[in-house]
Amino acid sequence: MRKLSLLILGAVVGAGGATMVSQTTLLSSTSAIAASADTYRQLSLFGDVFEKIRTDYVEKPEESKLVESAINGMLTSLDPHSSYMDAKSFRDMQVQTRGEFGGLGIEVTMEDGLVKVVTPIDDTPASRAGILANDVITQINGEQVQGLNLNQAVDKMRGPINSSVTLKIQRKEAKEPLEVKLTREMIKVRPVRARVEGDIGVLRITQFNEQTYEGLRSAIDKLTTDIGADKLAGFVIDLRNNPGGLLDQAIMVSDAFLDRGEIVSTRSRNAEDTQRFNAKSGDLTKGKPLVVLVNGGSASASEIVAGALQDHKRATVLGTRSFGKGSVQTIIPLGGNGAVRLTTARYYTPSGRSIQAKGIDPDTEVVQDVPDELKGKDETKGEAGLRGHLQNGGEKEERGGSSAYVPPDPTKDKQLQAAYDLLHGVRKGAANTVTPAN
């Protein structure tokens, strides 16, 4: 059975082995039998309650929904990241991790109850049809968007390749709404965006899906060519507000900047199930200086990359403390009935740090200037602020989140500007212009 995870691909779920019977083993077996008997009594209680609901509830319940809710309740009682996914949620998760789907090629957000276009993706049905940033989508196939949430609206725009969808669009400068008919194509999410900033290459990684490493490799090659290897001062790797994704991609992204050494290890309940992942020879940047940007919204796979590069002193981590999600979830498919997302391990940085409910402290702390209207709203609670979160498992100190605000104007982005200054300081051999965090 193939196992997928938002964080780990191919995580090991414990397997039993042959043992030699001894007195201790027999005593343990007796205890296990007693425990099993008690468990079966509890399951019998569950069956009694289920039957009462099924026969006596004021309205006829949907029995399959009752069972799914019971399963989900059992899983969510463990920690905030364990849950049950029905068939549709499982399909949606697979689309997210693959990073490709049948759609139109527009990035959207919800504003005042309507879907607003953030940007059309180049060479997609949306861009070819002339859809522009800030266009407001008011109808999808004749159905009003107002009243739908963002996920519902996105689901209606996605669909089988070569099928059509009609959008009604309101544009500021147009008096009358525009009606556009588009044919869906295979759309690939761009998890890596690259741009040149003088002699610096900026790599913005928004998520870790199946496209991330290839996108990163292509972006590094293009930036190196565009700037010139001799003129290139270094790279900024922007992981701010990146919620994470697949572990294999986090490992490959880390490996892109390392020549050797451990990247991450995972430790489950059984010590023999510990896994270690090491870098292979070959730094794609040829040792160019790196600055990694993190904030309170950088979680999971983002923290694996930041932690690996920090521990190997390959990069300077700059920004505010990260989210602190240091646990591993394994996705276990259940045939045609969805999947279970189960926390199976903690992960550790190369130096042996568990960042669970602690986060990664930046080497250089830089706090943004937050607009008055957003003050207090820019803070994330972090993993430590989640009810029922998994304990660190070694460290007593747990801390809440930190600021996750990123100014929309790059010239007002203090963290980004500090990264530029630091890279220029590294290149010139000058002292840091930013005070390191204590």
From TrEMBL:
GO CC aspect terms: outer membrane-bounded periplasmic space
Keyword Cell cycle: no
Keywords (A to Z) from UniProt: Hydrolase, Protease, Serine protease, Signal
UniProt cross-references to InterPro entries, sorted A to Z: ClpP/crotonase-like_dom_sf (IPR029045), CtpA/B_N (IPR055210), PDZ (IPR001478), PDZ_6 (IPR041489), PDZ_sf (IPR036034), Peptidase_S41A (IPR004447), Tail-specific_protease (IPR005151)
Ranges of residues in domain PDZ: 90-158
One Gene Ontology MF term: endopeptidase activity
Signal sequence range: 1-17
Protease keyword on record: yes
PROSITE patterns: PDZ (PS50106)
GO process terms (BP): proteolysis; signal transduction
Comp. bias (Basic and acidic residues): 373-386
Pfam families: CtpB_N-like (PF22694), PDZ_6 (PF17820), Peptidase_S41 (PF03572)
Highest taxon of the lineage: Bacteria
Region (Disordered): 373-412
Similarity field: Belongs to the peptidase S41A family.
Name of this protein: S41 family peptidase
